[in-house]
Batch of 2 targets.
Target 1
Amino acid sequence: MDFNGLAQQFTEFYYNQFDSDRSQLGNLYRDESMLTFETTQLQGTKNIVEKLTSLPFQKVTHRITTLDAQPASPSGDVLVMITGDLLIDEEQNAQRFSQVFHLIPEGNSYYVFNDIFRLNYSA
Amino acid sequence: MDFNGLAQQFTEFYYNQFDSDRSQLGNLYRDESMLTFETTQLQGTKNIVEKLTSLPFQKVTHRITTLDAQPASPSGDVLVMITGDLLIDEEQNAQRFSQVFHLIPEGNSYYVFNDIFRLNYSA
C-alpha cells in the first residue's frame, strides 16, 4: 500500500477506535511512543492510554476535514497531518483540531511513534 | 540545545524569513525534501522555492498560537507542529493554519525533510 492509502486507513481506524472505545488504542503505541495532548506530554503505552481514557467526555466524534501524508524516512516511516472537527458529548458546536502522527512500520503493520494533538482556539 | 529550544528557534527563523523574503528559504530544504502546501505536493529545493515565491500575496505575517515538538528518531530528528494565524496583504481577518515540520540534523544545523501546510477552513 502506498503512504497515502496507509495514512488514510490508519487515521480512519484510529478515530473509529477512539470514538467507540479509546481504552483499546494501546495496541497502536509502544513504550517509546510520545503523546502531546494539548499542553500535556507523555511517553509510553501505559501513560498514553491512561491519559486518553481519563479525558472528561463520554461521547466523542472526530470528523476529518483534511488528511495529508508524506514518506518520512527511507525505512518506510509515514507522517500524517489531520485537521478536522471534534464533537464532544451534547455540545452543538464542533471544536477544530489539528493532529500529527509519525508512523513506524513493524512487521505487516505500523505503530505510532509521535502523536501531537491540539485544539485550534480562535485568536 | 534541547528539541523544544531547537523547534522554537527554527520556527521563529522560518516564519521571519518567510514573512520578510521567502525566496531565501531554499537553504532550509534539500533535494529530498517534500512540501505539501494545501493540495499541492512538491519535492526538491527548486520546486519548493518556486511554489513559495509564486504564492499570490505581497505581505504576509505568521503568528504562532501553539508550537509543540517531539524527538522523532534516535539520530536527532525533531517533529514540530504549529497552529497559528496568517495575515495576508490588507485583509482584516486572520486565517487559521496548521503546519508540521520534520527536521533532520546536518552538521551544526537542521534541514526540513517534511513540510505540510494547511489552512483551517471552517466546517
Target 2
Amino acid sequence: MRFDEAYSGNVFIKSHGNYDESDVVIYGMPMDWTVSFRPGSRFGPAKIREVSLGLEEYSPYLDRHLEQVKYFDAGDIPLPFGNPQRSIDMIEEYVGTLLEAGKFPLGIGGEHLVSWPIFKAFKKKYDDFVVIHIDAHADLREEYEGEPLSHSTPIRKACELLGPENVYSFGIRSGMQEEFEFAKTSGMHMSKFEVAEPLKEILPTLAGRNVYVTIDIDVLDPAHAPGTGTAEAGGITSKELLEAIMLIAKSEVNVIGADLVEVAPVYDHSEQTAIAASKFIREMLLGWTK
Amino acid sequence: MRFDEAYSGNVFIKSHGNYDESDVVIYGMPMDWTVSFRPGSRFGPAKIREVSLGLEEYSPYLDRHLEQVKYFDAGDIPLPFGNPQRSIDMIEEYVGTLLEAGKFPLGIGGEHLVSWPIFKAFKKKYDDFVVIHIDAHADLREEYEGEPLSHSTPIRKACELLGPENVYSFGIRSGMQEEFEFAKTSGMHMSKFEVAEPLKEILPTLAGRNVYVTIDIDVLDPAHAPGTGTAEAGGITSKELLEAIMLIAKSEVNVIGADLVEVAPVYDHSEQTAIAASKFIREMLLGWTK
Amino acid sequence: MRFDEAYSGNVFIKSHGNYDESDVVIYGMPMDWTVSFRPGSRFGPAKIREVSLGLEEYSPYLDRHLEQVKYFDAGDIPLPFGNPQRSIDMIEEYVGTLLEAGKFPLGIGGEHLVSWPIFKAFKKKYDDFVVIHIDAHADLREEYEGEPLSHSTPIRKACELLGPENVYSFGIRSGMQEEFEFAKTSGMHMSKFEVAEPLKEILPTLAGRNVYVTIDIDVLDPAHAPGTGTAEAGGITSKELLEAIMLIAKSEVNVIGADLVEVAPVYDHSEQTAIAASKFIREMLLGWTK
Amino acid sequence: MRFDEAYSGNVFIKSHGNYDESDVVIYGMPMDWTVSFRPGSRFGPAKIREVSLGLEEYSPYLDRHLEQVKYFDAGDIPLPFGNPQRSIDMIEEYVGTLLEAGKFPLGIGGEHLVSWPIFKAFKKKYDDFVVIHIDAHADLREEYEGEPLSHSTPIRKACELLGPENVYSFGIRSGMQEEFEFAKTSGMHMSKFEVAEPLKEILPTLAGRNVYVTIDIDVLDPAHAPGTGTAEAGGITSKELLEAIMLIAKSEVNVIGADLVEVAPVYDHSEQTAIAASKFIREMLLGWTK
Amino acid sequence: MRFDEAYSGNVFIKSHGNYDESDVVIYGMPMDWTVSFRPGSRFGPAKIREVSLGLEEYSPYLDRHLEQVKYFDAGDIPLPFGNPQRSIDMIEEYVGTLLEAGKFPLGIGGEHLVSWPIFKAFKKKYDDFVVIHIDAHADLREEYEGEPLSHSTPIRKACELLGPENVYSFGIRSGMQEEFEFAKTSGMHMSKFEVAEPLKEILPTLAGRNVYVTIDIDVLDPAHAPGTGTAEAGGITSKELLEAIMLIAKSEVNVIGADLVEVAPVYDHSEQTAIAASKFIREMLLGWTK
Amino acid sequence: MRFDEAYSGNVFIKSHGNYDESDVVIYGMPMDWTVSFRPGSRFGPAKIREVSLGLEEYSPYLDRHLEQVKYFDAGDIPLPFGNPQRSIDMIEEYVGTLLEAGKFPLGIGGEHLVSWPIFKAFKKKYDDFVVIHIDAHADLREEYEGEPLSHSTPIRKACELLGPENVYSFGIRSGMQEEFEFAKTSGMHMSKFEVAEPLKEILPTLAGRNVYVTIDIDVLDPAHAPGTGTAEAGGITSKELLEAIMLIAKSEVNVIGADLVEVAPVYDHSEQTAIAASKFIREMLLGWTK
C-alpha cells in the first residue's frame, strides 16, 4: 500500500520493480484467435499472475528462493484482436528487444502459435539451439484448414527453421497420421505419451547445448489441467511435469529461454490449472535461469 | 455446408429436410476472433440448436405453430479460424446465394461483426432498406485499436453503406463518447436504454418499408443473458425483448432478414441465455417470416 | 431412430452415412430413471458425440485411422421417460435387430441398467460368451430398495443369465458386503481396485472366446471422470483405462460388442469426462472391431 | 419417514420438534423420473431445507415470525427410483394420513407430477375445492409420448378430477397448441404470461372457498430461477411471485394445502433458486396457514 | 507495456498514476471474517478492478468521461486475516489519512462491517453528516451471536454515532423483528423493498447536507447479483440501482464519500455481479465526485 | 450442540442415535476466519455429511461394515464468526469433554488451526503421544503476518507442546524456507512429497505408541481435491491416501484421535473432494477405532 507512487498490481509474485536490473523478463502473450476448438487462453497470463500470489516464494524441490533470481514482469504485449500476422510480428520484435538487452525471456501464452515468432527471434541471436517441446499435441501440421498461421503448426515451422534434428518433442498423444509420419521420417525426435523417462535419456546427449523449452499445459491430463482449450485424456500428472522441470534444471543443457502456453481460465473452475502453471513458472525461474 | 440437402448434424427444432422447398434458411456463423473481451460466441449457433429441442413448437404469443413455416437449418458456414477478412467474404457470398434463391436469411452468430457482410449482401439485392439494431452497445466505432474489422464497428459501417438515416438503434447503454456524438449528429436514430417504448413510436414511420433486424443478445440485462462476451449491467428483460419481437411482427414493416448474435455458451452456466435465444428465434420464425 | 438412413442429428465424428454398408453401429441409450443418487446420464450420448468433433481421427496408440472402420451412428433409442420396463424392452429389441443384421453393437449410456437388455439380446445369438465388466461398483445387487430393475443389478443378472463363471469384473472398489461375498463364493471373477494388471493375467485364459465388454466410466477416479452420477474416490487414471483397452485390442479374445455408460454431463464442468469417453470410444472402434 | 417423532436430518429452519403438536407438516417428494428434459429436482427438497438456515425467521412482508406457526418438517417420502406408479401411490397415501390428522400439508417437489396424487388425496377429504396453479407450463397434456404419468399432465388430470371450472392457471407461457385450445374451450381459467394482475381479479370471486395452491418455480424467469429442469424465458420476477403470495394471504380464500415444485439444484450454481424457494415457503407458512 | 518502470497492473480502469494530484482515492478492504453465512467478499475489490477493464470510459447516463475525474486506485489495505478489531482500526486510520489530505474516499468491500470504521473516521472530520444506506438487510443488530463486531451491526452503530435521525435506509427486505421495530421507533428512516421511489421523496429534504452513501450489492435481486454472501430474493434490478445513483448525482446533496460492499466473486459464475459493480463505481465516480 | 441426545440435523451416514452408547464421536468445526487465501472450509463438515449418504456402508479395503463401529455424529460446534481465540477455546473444551467421557474424537474441519486446541486437549489427558501430520503445507510458521493464531501455525505449536521429536509430517511440498530449515534442525520428522512409502518406514518405529492423526485434504493433488482453499500442484492421489490410511490401520500404533480438515465445498464443483473426504472418514472409522 503506497500513497505516493503507482500501485504495482497484477504481476507475478515478487516481480522485481526494475527492468534494467533484472536478468529475466516475464511477458504475456494474450492471443487465442487461431485456435480451432475452445478459445480463452488470452486470459491465461493474467490469471497465472493473479493466483501466483498464493504461492510460497521458496521451492522445496530446488531449495531456492525467488529472491535469488532477478526477474521483472513486463505485463502483456498488447496484441491486436483477430490479427494473427500483426500479433506474431509484435511478439518477434518484442522478444528480439529482450534478447538484445541480454534478458532471459520467459513467456506466458496464449495459444501455442506464439512460440513461432519466439523461435524466429532466437534464431537471429543464436546460430545453434535446440527446442524441447512438451505437449499433448504434435503441432506438426503444415497448415490448418488452409491457414498456415495456426496453433497446430508451430513445431513444424520450428523443424523448418532449425532443422528437424534440433527439435525434441515429449509426451505427444494426439495428432494427424501425417504428423506422426513426419515425426518418424524427418529426423526430429518424438517421444510418445511419456515425458520424464525419455528426458532422462535425451538430456545427456544435449549437454552443453543451448536449449529453448516450450511447454503446452495440455501435456497434463485433463484431471490436472482442465483449464485448457484442447484437453486430451491420457496425459501425465503435474507431479511428473515437476519432475521433468527438475531433470532439465539438473542437466547440463544451457536453457536460453522458455514459455508456458494454453492455460484457458474459463474452463478452470477451481483455478487448479492456473495454480499449477504458476508453480511451474516458479520452478522454471528458480531452476532454469541463473 | 450444403445448399441442397439435409445437414447431417445438430439442427434447430423441426427444421425442414429440404432446402429447395423452404422459404427460410437458418445458418450459423461460428466466428469470434475479433472480440476485444471474452471470446466464445463461436459455439453460440450449436448450443442454440441443441437447446431448441426443449422448446414447444407452438407459440402462445402469436398463436402459431412451427409447422406453419417452412424453414431449413443449413448448419454453420465453415469460417476459417483467425481470418476475419476471409470469414466475412464467405458470409457475404453465402447470404448472397440465399437471396438469389429467394430465401429469407435468418443468421445466428457469432460475434456482431458478422452482420457487416450480411448488410453488404442485402445491399446488392435491395436498393432501399432499413436496419433495426437492438443492442447494449452502439457498435459505431470506425476501428478498434487500429483494426477496422472488429465487433465494435458493424453499425458504423451500416451507416456508411445505407446512409445513417436508414439505421435505427435501440437499447444502447454503452459506447465511446465519439459514438454517442456520431449518433446525435449523423442523422441516424438512437434510443438509449429502452427498446419497446421507442419501437412503438418508430415502427409506424417505417410502415411498408423493407427492414433487416439485428439483435445482439447483450441488449438483455446480464441477469437474463449471462452467456455473452461483453455483459453490460442495466439492460432490458427477456419479457421486454419478446414484446419488441411482437411489436415488429404486428407492425406494417416488411422484414426481409434477421440475425441474433453474441450468445457465448461458456459463460452460460445454466444454459439460460441459449434457452432464451432459441425461443427468440422461434418467435422470429413465426412472427417475421410468412 | 432409423435403421437404414443417415441420422439427421449430432453424430460421432466421421460416422459413415449408410447403415447397410457399415460394420459397426453406434447407438445411444438416454436413460437414467432408476439411478439412486445423481441423475443426468441421459445426456451422456449426446455430449460424447458433440465433443467427439474435437478428436483427431487418427490413434497414435493403435496406428489406425477412423477411415479404416465402417461405422454408422444411429442416434439415440427414443426411450420413454420414467418407464424402465418398456425402456429395457426397446433396447433388447433394437440390439437384437443389429445382431440379426450382422452389425457390431457399440452402445453409449445412460445408466448401467441398459447393459442388462443388451446381455439378453446377445444371449439369443451367442450360446457362449463372456462379459468383461470394468467398473467402480460391483452392480451385483439382487434388487435396490425393492426394485429389481436398478442400475445396481445388471452384473448380478448377467451371472444368472450366463453363469457366474462367464463374468469377469475389474476395478471394483464399492459395493455392499453381500455383493463381495457373492463375488467370492459364486464362481465369478472379481479383481478389486486394479484393472490393467489383472487383465494381463485373465485375458490369455479367454483366448479365442467371444467377449462382450461393458465399461462404467466411474471406474476412473473422480479426478479423471467427475461427470458421473456415483463418483467413488480411489479409482484408476484415464491412462490406465487406455492401457486396458489396448490390452484387450491386442489379446486373442473375439470382441463381439461393447458399451460405455454413466457419463453425466451436468457434473462435468470442463467437459473432461465426455472428452475422455469420446477418446475411449474412438479406441474401442479402432481396436475392438475389424 | 416418521409421523410421530423428530426427523433426524436436515430440516426447514425452525421446524417444530413434535409432529402431534404441529398444525402444518412440511414433506419432501424427491422424484424426477418422468421429466422429459433435465432431471435433478429430486434434490430440491434437501437443498431448500439446507439454504433455509440462511433465512431470517421474521417476515417484513407479513410482520410475522416463524415462531407464530407450529410446523413440523417430516423429511422426504422415500420414493422408489424409477417407479412412477408406486411413487404416486405413496404420496397419495401419505398426504391422506396428514389430512386425516388435521394437518395442513405443505409439499416440496420434485417434479410436478407429484401434485396429481396430492389432488386425489384432497378430493377424498374435500368435496369441493379449487386449484390455483402458478406455472410457466400449461401441464394440460393427456399423455407425454404415450405415458399418462408425466410431469406434463397433472393439471389436465386436475380438470378431470375436480371439473375444469375449479382449476385456475396463472403465468402460463408455454405448451402445445392443444393445451391452449383445451384451456379456452374446457371451462377452466387460464391467465397467460401474468400472475399478480389476474390474481387481483380472480381472488375476490373465490372468497370463502377452499383453495389448494401449487407453484412451479419455473413460473419465474430463468434470471430468477435458473435452477429448474425446463427453464422458459419471459417469466415473472421473484418480487412478483412474492406479491402473488401476499395477494393470496390477504384474500378471503381458505387455503387448505400447497406445494412448491421443480427446484433442481444442479443447475442452480449460486443457489439463488433454492434461496428464493426457501423464502417463498417461509411466506407461505406465515401467510397461508393459521 | 513499459520497459523501464514498474508495471501498473490490476487497478480500476483509467486510474490516475499519481496520488497527490488526485481528488478521489479508490481503496479496497478485503475483509470477510465476521460474515455469518458464505464468505468470499475479500476477493471483491480485486475482481471489480479486473473486470473494470471491460468498461467503456464514457457514461451515456451522465454524458461524462472518466478523464474528467482525477482518481487514484491505491490498492487494498493489507488487513490481517481473522482479526476484526485490528482490521477496523486500520481502516479507520487509513480513511482518516485520506480525509486529512482532502481526498474523496471511495471504498470497495469486503463485508459490510468495513463501513463502521469509515463512519468513525468521517465523524472526526465532519460534525454533521447523513448516511444513505442502500441494502437488502437492515444491519441494525446490536450484536451477532455475542459478537458486536459483525457484518450485521454497522447501521445500528451508525445510529449510535450519528443519531438515528441522520441514518436513511432504502430497499430493506430482511432482518430480525427487533431490527424493524428499532427502525420504526428510533427516529431513523427506513424504506422497505423500494429504493428509487422513496429516494425521490427523501433527497429534497437533504438538500445542502453532507451525505455519505454505502451500497450493499445485495440490495439487487440475486438475478442481478448472484455473487454475494447473503443473497435475498425479491430485490431491485441493476437498472433501478443505476437510477438511484443518478437521482443522488442530480440532487442537491453534497456527497462526501461512498462505498460499495459485499461482492463475492466465488458465487459469481459469469462475473455479472462484479461487472455490474464496476459500472456502479464508474457512475459514482462520474456523478458523485467533482 | 448437545452431548446427550441425537443431533437434529444432517449427520454422517449411519450415525448412532445415542451419545452415551457410542465409542466414537464425530464433530464438526466450521471455522475458516484465519485463512490467508480462499475461505470456505466452514461449510466442509456439512457437505461431507451430506454426500456421505451416497457411500456404501461396507469397506472392501478393510472388509468391515459401519455397523461394527458405534459412533455418534454430534453436529458442529457453534463457533463464533471472526473470533479465533474464542473458537479455539470452545474446541479445546469440547474435545476435553469427549476425552473425559472416554470417547474417540473424530473431528472435521474447518481450517487447520482447529487442530491446535485439539492437541492441547489431548495433552491434558495423555502424557505421551505422537502426531502424524499428512499435508501439502508444513504449517510450521511461528506466526502469519503478525498473527500467531493462523492456519499456517498448528504444527509448529505441536512441536512446542509435544516436543519436535513427537511430530511426524508427511507429503509436505510447500512452505517458507524457515519452515523447512526448522524441520531439518529441530528434531521433528518431515517426509517431503511422499506419504505411503515413508509411512512404511516410520510406522514400525512407533509401534505401541499413542498416535493422533491429522489429515489436511490438500495433501491430495488438486486433481483429486480441487475443493480446498490452498490448492498446491504436485500432490498424491486419493488412491495413495487410502493406502496411507490402510497402513496406519494395519500397523501397531494405537490411534487415539484424528481429524480431517480444509474441505471447502465452494471450489468443489462436482463434489469430488467432499465425496473423497467422506470415504476417508468411513475408512478412518472402520480402520482406526475399535
